[in-house]
C-alpha cells in the first residue's frame, strides 16, 4: 500500500506542476512560476521512472511448472485492480481540469467583453 501512495503522490505532483504551467491573467510572476513548474515536473517524472525501474527489479522469479502461470494470473489481477484505481483517479483529474478550463473560458469571455465595452 505504501508504494501506491508513493506513486499517487508523484502523479499528484505531476498534476500540480502541470497546473502551475498554465498562464494566469495579471500574474507578473507567471513566467518564473511556469519555469519552476517545468523543473518540478521534470524531477517528478525522473522520480517516477526510477521508482518503476526499482519495482521491476524486485519481482521474484517463478518456480515450478504452474508457478509462472499462477504468478502471471496474480500479476494480471493486480494490474486490473491498479488500472481500475488509476481510471477512477484519472476521472477525478478530468473533472478537475474541466472545471479549470471552464474557469479559463469564463475569464477569457469576461476579458473579451470588458474590452469590447470600453
From TrEMBL:
<dbReference type="GO" id="GO:0016592">
    <property type="term" value="C:mediator complex"/>
</dbReference>
<dbReference type="InterPro" id="IPR021640">
    <property type="entry name" value="Mediator_Med28"/>
</dbReference>
<keyword id="KW-0539">Nucleus</keyword>
<protein>
    <recommendedName>
        <fullName>Mediator of RNA polymerase II transcription subunit 28</fullName>
    </recommendedName>
</protein>
<keyword id="KW-0804">Transcription</keyword>
<feature type="coiled-coil region">
    <location>
        <begin position="66"/>
        <end position="107"/>
    </location>
</feature>
<keyword id="KW-0805">Transcription regulation</keyword>
<comment type="similarity">
    <text>Belongs to the Mediator complex subunit 28 family.</text>
</comment>
<keyword id="KW-0010">Activator</keyword>
<keyword id="KW-0175">Coiled coil</keyword>
<dbReference type="Pfam" id="PF11594">
    <property type="entry name" value="Med28"/>
</dbReference>
